[in-house]
Amino acid sequence: xxxxxxxxxxxxxxxxxxxxxxxxxxxxxxxxxxxxxxxxxxxxxxxxxxxxxxxxxxxxxxxxxxxxxxxxxxxxxxxxxxxxxxxxxxxxxxxxxxxxxxxxxxxxxxxxxxxxxxxxxxxxxxxxxxxxxxxxxxxxxxxxxxxxxxxxxxxxxxxxxxxxxxxxxxxxxxxxxxxxxxxxxxxxxxxxxxxxxxxxxxxxxxxxxxxxxxxxxxxxxxxxxxxxxxxxxxxxxxxxxxxxxxxxxxxxxxxxxxxxxxxxxxxxxxxxxxxxxxxxxxxxxxxxxxxxxxxxxxxxxxxxxxxxxxxx
Length: 312
Known about the structure:
Layout: H1 3-18, E1 30-34, H2 41-48, H3 51-54, E2 59-63, H4 70-76, E3 81-85, H5 86-94, E4 99-108, E5 115-120, E6 135-138, H6 144-155, E7 164-167, H7 173-179, E8 184-188, H8 191-198, E9 201-205, E10 215-223, H9 224-229, H10 231-250, H11 252-263, H12 267-270, E11 277-278, H13 284-296
Parallel strand pairs: 1-2, 1-3, 6-7, 6-8
Antiparallel strand pairs: 3-10, 4-10, 4-11, 5-8, 5-9
Helix pairs in contact: 1-4, 2-10, 2-11
């Protein structure tokens, strides 16, 4: 199903759920759609510390459970800005949606500890070649961690087609490992930390530790039309976000309190999550690398022009 068709199917539902009720205040707030992840802590702190407000920009954060729902939410106008993984963003553009990056969000760097290929005890997996013939749980076929894992296998001379992938949500991963239904999972925090604490397995690789450069995880995205019509809003959003990221980096403990608040994670769980690698500088090279990676895996029909993927 293309993103255009998907957008038509769920746009009305998203609009109804996110825009219900009469407007009570002016100016109308910018609605920022986000998923429950620590990777966008910069926006959480820009909101909680008042940086959006100080910039004269009323911003309403709206939790949307599923990352693939973000492009249709933008298309329908239910949200004006959305946090979207790099792979979902590129698939949406490839499917015909005219979306642009207005700000960077987070990256997976060589030192990142928030995600990993996690193998169960007794699986016999120690190196890339050991995944051949094994059953591996992934949070979504074609999702960003699945893309990264297949790239990691390829870099180490392993054909991903020789691995059996099982689509499974993050919350299922501990039970799948404990029960032996899979040999490994490609997972992320907080499930990764819980499995390490339960001693049911071990980290094989973070995947990005073998990549030449950091890889983008989340972007802040809008439609091109919205970005063109609201350059002042975009500029204020970027400035407030930079301040939020700076605060998050300087105050990790306070930031984790807000991560719990905005994501719904228990505070004690959020407190244990390693801080993500938040970024502010535009980095077209990492976006180009993601495009190349996805084209290698047959995930894109087109070859998007990197320069056109960014708002001015």
